[in-house]
Structure formats: structure tokens, C-alpha cells
Automatic annotation (TrEMBL):
The keyword Cytoplasm does not apply. This is NodB homology domain-containing protein. It comes from Blastopirellula marina. It is found in: Secreted. The lineage of its organism: Bacteria, Pseudomonadati, Planctomycetota, Planctomycetia, Pirellulales. Coiled coil: none annotated.
Length: 321
């Protein structure tokens, strides 16, 4: 007989109502960090729909769920609490990456109403330059190229081209985007990107208790960037946030955040400027090992999918890597 995998077990647990029971007792202890990118109606978006974590109604439901089942913490709690403090807690930290405008328009009112002190990792150059991200630009070009094709075909093409982009060295990125624009007969996207928050919005969020973390100036995958550029990306992004928002920026998240998007060298350099840094490939920071947490690879879960998926993630984060 073949034993079912943990993943299968977790899915069955949800359908049998076992997750509800487990939540009463708690299957994990420690710090679970959830990551969101965009919130809203992806179907209306002419840019990358793959970065939508969920829609407004589900986000409100998820935040209410987190509020009633776990201890919601701020980044100050994470940075200041001693390791022994995490042993018995079921703490959740809500984070957002990049600086999308729906974070302000949709998520912020919900967070404020529920008094959830979320942490926003903001790419300073997106706010300053209003420049388009590579993934949004690829999606825009391909969507125009395949106008009339099914959503599924277009999304598949976008995923393939974005995934190829991940693999190429930084020096070839511009040529690659030029080629995609030529193939699509759209050329490159030349307008200011309408998808980013403004400094004014971010200041309002800061005044309401939201926190901010560094997420570079231009959102490169740092391990594919010359290490000579790391210092600028690490420090200038932070400097702009502190200057515009009058806040203390203590933490950083690696762009994309997969295990191959940071290295031992990068972690060391990051540690010279920040008190902690977050990855984004799943897992939970286990309470019993809190004394040994790698503070420059604090684990986060990117949130996607329906509410059932959210229940599984928050009930069994240690199993679903
Ligand atoms: Zn990012």
C-alpha cells in the first residue's frame, strides 16, 4: 500500500472538517508570515494577472479569519521579542511586496478597520520613477499580441516568457524585453505605470500604523545582478523610504524570494544594513527553533488561490512547503 502524502492528507483534512478541529488545538507554534502582492479583480487588468493574490472579498475574509484564529503581530514584535517568546505562540505577520496601488485602495481600509499592522516591502524606484516592472511589461506586450486569444492561452504565454526572463543574466534583460516587444509588434511600454502607490499614499498608511521594509530600488533578482550593485539596491531603497516616510526601515525582502534569489554572500551584505530579511518560498518560522531562526531567511508564504487553500496554508504551514 502506498501511504498518502502530507499534502493529500491536508486536503482531506479540510474536506473532513479536521482542519477546524486542528485549529482549535493548533498544529504549529511560531511565526507564520503571509505575503500578498495585488488585491482585486485580476480579469480587468491589462498587466500581469499572475501577481493577484486574491480579490477584495476574499482578502477581507482572510484578514477576519486571521484576526479571530491567531495572534496578529507587527514587525516591531518580530524584531524585538526574544526567541523564547515564540515557543507557544501562533503569531501571524501580514506582508505585501512591491508597492501596488490596490494595497492602498483596497487592502489598507480593511487592515485599518481590523487594526492589523501590516508590513509593506516597497521598491523605491517604482514609486519614484513610475517605471513598469518587467513582469507587468511582458504581460502588457503579450496581451496585446494575443488580443482575441483565450485568457488561458495568453496567461500560458506570459508565464513562459516571464519564466525565461528569470533565467537570463542581467546584461541581457533589456535586449530580451526589446525582442518580446518586437515579436508582439507593440514595442516597449513607454508610459508611466499606473499601478504603483504614491509617497503621499504611503505616508497616510505610515500615519495609521502600517510598517515598511526595503525591497530594492529596481527589483532585480540580486543573485543574477553584479554583486557590485547590491550595495546600492540595499541602501538606496531604504534611504528613500526613510526620507519620504520618516520611518525606521529595519527589514528587507529579497525580490522574488525563491531559494536561488539570495545567497550566503548576499545575506551577509544584507545583515550590514537590516535587522532581518524575508524569503518567499513557503514554510513557517517554528516556535521551538526560534533561537536558531536564520534572521536573513525568515520564511514567508505567498498567498494564492481560494479560501480552502488559505485554510490549509494557515493550518498546516509546516507541511506544505
Ligand atoms: Zn517583489
Amino acid at each position: 500500500m502506498k501511504w498518502p502524502t502530507y499534502r493529500t492528507l491536508a486536503k482531506r483534512a479540510e474536506s473532513l472538517g479536521l482542519n477546524r478541529l486542528v485549529r482549535l488545538v493548533g498544529s504549529w507554534r511560531g511565526l507564520l508570515v503571509l505575503t500578498y502582492h495585488r488585491i482585486g479583480d485580476a480579469d480587468q487588468c491589462e498587466f500581469d494577472r499572475g501577481v493577484y493574490s486574491t480579490d477584495e472579498a476574499s482578502f477581507a475574509e482572510q484578514m477576519a479569519f486571521v484576526r479571530s484564529h491567531f495572534e496578529v503581530v507587527s514587525i516591531d514584535d518580530v524584531v524585538r521579542r526574544p526567541a523564547a517568546d515564540w515557543k507557544k505562540r501562533q503569531a501571524v505577520l501580514i506582508t505585501f511586496d512591491d508597492g501596488y496601488i490596490d494595497n492602498y485602495e483596497i487592502a489598507f481600509p480593511i487592515l485599518k478597520r481590523l487594526e492589523i499592522p501590516a508590513l509593506f516591502f516597497v521598491t523605491s524606484g517604482f514609486i519614484d520613477q513610475r517605471s513598469i516592472s518587467w513582469w507587468d511589461e511582458i504581460a502588457w506586450m503579450v496581451r496585446k499580441q494575443y488580443a482575441g486569444a483565450s485568457d488561458e492561452e495568453v496567461d500560458d504565454a506570459i508565464v513562459e516568457i516571464v519564466e525565461n526572463y528569470y533565467e537570463i543574466p542581467e546584461a541581457e534583460c533589456e535586449a530580451y524585453l526589446n525582442r518580446v516587444g518586437d515579436d508582439a509588434q507593440t514595442g516597449r511600454y513607454s508610459d508611466a505605470s499606473p499601478v504603483w502607490m504614491t509617497w503621499e499614499m504611503l505616508r497616510e498608511m505610515a500615519a495609521s500604523g502600517m510598517s515598511f521594509g526595503g525591497h530594492t530600488v529596481s527589483h532585480p533578482i540580486l543573485t543574477r545582478t553584479r554583486s557590485g550593485n547590491w550595495e546600492h539596491e540595499l541602501t538606496e531603497g531604504r534611504r528613500r523610504l526613510e526620507e519620504e516616510l520618516s520611518v525606521d526601515v529595519q527589514v528587507f525582502s529579497y525580490p522574488v524570494g525563491n531559494p536561488d534569489c539570495f545567497s550566503a554572500d548576499l545575506k551577509q551584505q544584507t545583515a550590514r544594513h537590516y535587522r532581518a530579511a524575508f524569503s518567499c518560498y513557503g514554510g513557517v518560522n517554528q516556535g521551538r527553533g526560534a533561537g536558531n531562526w536564520d534572521r536573513f531567511d525568515l520564511r514567508r508564504w505567498p498567498v494564492y488561490g481560494p479560501m480552502r487553500q488559505f485554510h490549509m496554508t494557515t493550518t498546516w504551514p509546516q507541511l506544505l512547503n
